[in-house]
Amino acid sequence: MAVRVGILGATGAVGQRFIQLLDDHPTFELAALTASEESAGKTYADAAKWRVNVPIPEDVAEMEVGPTTPEAIPEDVDLLFSSLPSGVATEVEPEFLHEGYVVSSNSSNDRMAPDVPLTIPEVNPDHLDLIEVQRDERGWDGALVKNPNCSTITMVPTLAALDEAFDLESVRVSTLQAVSGAGYSGVTSMEIIDNAIPHIGGEENKMETESRKLLGEFDGVDVNLHGMDVAASCNRIPTIDGHLENVFAETAEEATAEDAAEAMRSYEGIDLHSAPEQLIHVFEDPVRPQPRLDRERGDGMQISAGGVQETGTGIKYNCLAHNTIRGAAGASLLNGELLVEEGWV
Amino acid sequence: MAVRVGILGATGAVGQRFIQLLDDHPTFELAALTASEESAGKTYADAAKWRVNVPIPEDVAEMEVGPTTPEAIPEDVDLLFSSLPSGVATEVEPEFLHEGYVVSSNSSNDRMAPDVPLTIPEVNPDHLDLIEVQRDERGWDGALVKNPNCSTITMVPTLAALDEAFDLESVRVSTLQAVSGAGYSGVTSMEIIDNAIPHIGGEENKMETESRKLLGEFDGVDVNLHGMDVAASCNRIPTIDGHLENVFAETAEEATAEDAAEAMRSYEGIDLHSAPEQLIHVFEDPVRPQPRLDRERGDGMQISAGGVQETGTGIKYNCLAHNTIRGAAGASLLNGELLVEEGWV
Amino acid sequence: MAVRVGILGATGAVGQRFIQLLDDHPTFELAALTASEESAGKTYADAAKWRVNVPIPEDVAEMEVGPTTPEAIPEDVDLLFSSLPSGVATEVEPEFLHEGYVVSSNSSNDRMAPDVPLTIPEVNPDHLDLIEVQRDERGWDGALVKNPNCSTITMVPTLAALDEAFDLESVRVSTLQAVSGAGYSGVTSMEIIDNAIPHIGGEENKMETESRKLLGEFDGVDVNLHGMDVAASCNRIPTIDGHLENVFAETAEEATAEDAAEAMRSYEGIDLHSAPEQLIHVFEDPVRPQPRLDRERGDGMQISAGGVQETGTGIKYNCLAHNTIRGAAGASLLNGELLVEEGWV
Amino acid sequence: MAVRVGILGATGAVGQRFIQLLDDHPTFELAALTASEESAGKTYADAAKWRVNVPIPEDVAEMEVGPTTPEAIPEDVDLLFSSLPSGVATEVEPEFLHEGYVVSSNSSNDRMAPDVPLTIPEVNPDHLDLIEVQRDERGWDGALVKNPNCSTITMVPTLAALDEAFDLESVRVSTLQAVSGAGYSGVTSMEIIDNAIPHIGGEENKMETESRKLLGEFDGVDVNLHGMDVAASCNRIPTIDGHLENVFAETAEEATAEDAAEAMRSYEGIDLHSAPEQLIHVFEDPVRPQPRLDRERGDGMQISAGGVQETGTGIKYNCLAHNTIRGAAGASLLNGELLVEEGWV
């Protein structure tokens, strides 16, 4: 039976990915699109400057875009995906939660709030139960679930695999991030052609804190942050899609390169429509993964890793994910599928 | 009084930089150019596919290129710069040394040989005295001096500053390297447009070993490698020139971000023609240094740093240098100036 | 019933596209792969440096690659696709033709030979009958059919539409071509990052001659070249796939912009598996087509056009096609489908 | 004796180029900087986000930025350079002209006004006398002189050479334009990486009209537009600086390729400080000029050409210029030098 869904902030870069991913989805049926006031009342084709490299699904092109208010959502919609700018989301998401909507949100606000589940279905599905705490504290009928930042989500599945096998103590990570992560107008061409930018505002902090929440233990009341020490340096480079990351990890149990690769390879996935069969693909060839060649693996939902080697005191490796699919729209979508599977919708 | 110099391997990308940098040099006078057999006998303009963005100096354009043999070098030439491919250099450099030439070489062979000085004039000029050991062991009249790899030289001045002030214990470094570091044909366009490559063969090992030799202590007989633990991940990105690096360092003495920045800023330079007035420029703005904007600082010879911050257990920062100037031709040239200054030529 | 096919030169960039396109083809069954001597005997996975952004089809990965000789082709294979370098193809293609194979070739040799059909199925399918002439003249049992160069094929469908409606007299065309058109190693990164190259050897001549053969009239014996005057300037730019072209055309009959756009839009396609439903998509938005956004239209087989406007004396417009699909492997494949349809296989 | 000059709109991309070019100018002394209200009162270093790849001249960094009003200009300033956005310039430039200032403007407003000289010093210096007409008509004490658009100025010197020698009848031109031509934020990275855009709003019309005014004859009262027929297609590509253009020209007198090249090579320059010794450099090598390799020729003020060939009915060739130097700030500066030389300042 179809679950009717809506998209808050449907015209932006992540919103467009939601529409692409929902096309032909077996259980989700797109029933509502919202955007800013100036887009409200237009058809989606008119409101969105569509830039995905496949045409807009024809039925979506003709859908009317509504304002981002609970009143604009048809009554029979039960699940909302949010790709609102975080400033807007902070204001607006609570209105939908008061009205009883379940919101799977990619917006960065409230990710570290103690009563908001920050979830990757394959890594910490049990954190969803924090919804009970959330409802108690906020008096909402709905539920707010967040997925992590695109740079965080790229590395966390590999960290989860290592932590499970060897207990992580410290992580140093450098990122090579694609421009799409900043939204359509986030990085100008003059900033990035023949160049790289060694800082992305707020990004380092997100990686350092969200990763510890994702790997934290939920004791029924609180998520206790993982004790590992994480430091990140975030770089923007001239790629369109796909974040590549270099990780240096120290573990309590000694890990050989081969053990570490095997831990990643065998880390268990989840049986949901948008989840890849294997969560982490580990390349033997040290020049892989590469953004342009590997970001589409598993329809953009698989994590790739490679270059696993021992350092003097730990291991180092590289990982990659498609930042606007696994790192944004696909992440929220997968959380939505988990919410349905677990009966929250 | 002019020192007459020659360039071994003058037609390649680094060779072209040598020619650009020697144009108008106050003391070095270009007197010999060598290349492979097929170029020998041609004028330089015919032999080299010139790709620097200023025209070939007119007098050099008409010079005849000779084969890479000692007989092809005029008698009055006393200093040679080498930018031969390392496979060729391994074979050929010794011939010049037997004939008594002083060779300042950018080629990667023999950099870690115990009796070969690996030198950055501002960092370890005293290592030049290893030439005495070299002459004793090899029976050469000449002298072979190497400069480090371009990715090593970008970070080592900053590490030297930190080591002097706080004693380095461990270094984790990720590089974002320009394509020119691989030579003119080293990276194809299909490999790198909209992409990044997370591995550069041999480069990680160079960074991990050369840095420890450069910061090692010379006791009059041997260079004792520095005891710090270094691990590197090397990435190629779509930039033309300028290597950017993210460094995570742990020190024995506690260093605040401000102390670390100050240690870099005040690290002493050297008074040689091609040396920048200030060795390390430290930006306050965390989005700097950037390859396209900052690689030309100090005519390509200054190191830039920025983003200095404390991590839980150490500091992190970014650094940048022009890889074919400070990281190659300019490095050899500066070593040549030091060799003259110290009386080895 | 399946037609068993082989690929000559299967490991290169175009060869890889053939394999991608033949995966799941409804009537063609891949039965033979050839490459150079050094690859012969290896599995395809070992012989090819696979760089398409989807994994190698698993059954193809394990196929053995043979040498490029007729003996290496299983007897029951009837149709061969050729993506050999043209120098090799000149030597080797005739051997297969003597043995009776039908060869649909992307290689540039012999395209202008009077007895070799140069064919785009939607434009000049009748030229296939030149095979009769070819067999008479050469004494072959097989048949050699060529598709045009990638830059030619991008514009010719639009020219055919205009010629049909208004009679073409002169064409001036500038191309902005992707690096993949030069093969994997054809353009180095140092040549093209932050740059453009205003000349591609041989390309201009191909556009100027092949276009006139494609639009020429076949009188049963000869193809009489179209009388239009064509001049081309070919540029390489930093894009991976997709050739964009600016066309200035003068016609005998006066054409308004709207008439010209309509002539393109309504130009008839062909009913073959790999053919797009509509041959030419004409954008209203003048900023389209764009390589990254539009090269995948119609699975890479549709031609896009846009910016149709009147000049003082004619019209101008832009067109685009995926150069390694519609412009190479897909072009040969479509010719193969036509050969089967018309009973030549 | 120094001429004291000011820059209107000094903080933008072209404004920054003005400052770079005025540093060490032998006769112009920078005495005033203006910008928008929000920048007024700040030092230049604080007001401008400096992005040129050499540091801000130290004395300029400390200069105070004023509002863009005549009152903010010191009395002893006699020559103003304008790089205001054209919407602002339309409003504001007349205020300065009423106050008697001579303004050499790069802004696109009023370029085609009958009483405004549109000038390239080497091409149509006599058009400056239109200032008399302008003063009569407008009652200004000052004078407004414009330089053409960056894409126009790249080709017009080559057209002037051909027209002088062979009489131009028709021009078809395709441009490959750098992103800096759209200003710092004009083109987003997502629009242009691995892509090209086949339309630049207004640009084609500028090329088609400005070129005819520049080559037009001034009869003492009016500039009569040149009768040639010009059609342009303008493309944006992923280069930072340097516009490359493919020109197809038809001439009344027959021109061989060699004659055409010679006409360009020998076209006379002008003896002003910022003018290159030779106006047009013509390459023999058909792969040149290229943006990254050739845009800096003549300190960014020389025009490069190459690939001169005969077509069936005319000639074709390529040309290139640095769009923010010869095509913007350098163009206005050179007009300023001409204004001084001719006694208008």
TrEMBL record, chains A, B, C, D:
Specify the superkingdom. Answer: Archaea
* Chain ranges of the Semialdehyde dehydrogenase NAD-binding domain: 4-131
User: What are the entry keywords?
Assistant: NADP, Oxidoreductase
EC class: oxidoreductase
Q: Tell me the active site.
A: C150, H243
Q: Which InterPro entries match?
A: ASADH-related (IPR051823), Asp_semi-ald_DH_pep-lack (IPR005676), NAD(P)-bd_dom_sf (IPR036291), Semialdehyde_DH_NAD-bd (IPR000534), Semialdhyde_DH_dimer_dom (IPR012280)
Which CDD domains does the UniProt entry name for this protein? ASADH_C_arch_fung_like, ScASADH_like_N
Instruction: Please provide an example of a Pfam family that matches this protein in its UniProt record.
Output: Semialdhyde_dhC
Q: Which residues cross the membrane?
A: none
Indicate the family of this protein.
Answer: Belongs to the aspartate-semialdehyde dehydrogenase family.
Q: What is this protein called?
A: Aspartate-semialdehyde dehydrogenase
Taxonomic lineage from the root: Archaea, Methanobacteriati, Methanobacteriota, Stenosarchaea group, Halobacteria
